[in-house]
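Figure-free illustration: sequence to structure, shown twice.
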Amino acid sequence: MNASIVLLDSLKDSNLTIINNQAWFISIDILLIICLTLTIILAMIFLFIILIDSSCQTVPMILITNSCFSSLSLAVAILWSAVITFYNDLNQIQYHDPTCIIHG
């Protein structure tokens, strides 16, 4: 009886929390990583086509290139954040990440 009370008191005093990750967290993370990878590949293909083909080097295409480059930059940043989120969800890590400020 006393052992169970001591165990219960030590559990109440401990600072541990049980993490309840849902199964759909990981599937959404995988879907996000796949979509972002496809976005990066398509953006790089478009930028490569515009760089190689001289008929595509006009003022309207330069504006499209700017939009494509900005979407590529955003996709890389979100992919980095998604990979770290996937790693944390897979290992059920719940703590203040030191690079959390950079992710935001």
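We now fold a second protein in the same way, so the two outputs can be compared directly.
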Amino acid sequence: MWEFDDVQAFLKAASLHCWYSAFYLAVTTGMRRGQILGLRWKDVDLEKGILYVRQTLKDGKQFLTGAKTASGVSPMRRWRS
């Protein structure tokens, strides 16, 4: 388990990486890799600040999941722009 300072250092080091938004979601929401990779733009509500986890990916295959919500929208805004 990472300490707060470890998370901050990791996110700072990864800030210019193309996968930064995925890293940010992983460490701030607890979402799993397959949930993050399964996100589509229609699952992101930037105005309300909500992510809807409607599917997950495993080995490149799509699996539908029950509705879940998570916050972490600011890096998604950055990624979208």
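Summary for the second example: The CA atoms of residues 34 and 60 lie 9 Å apart.
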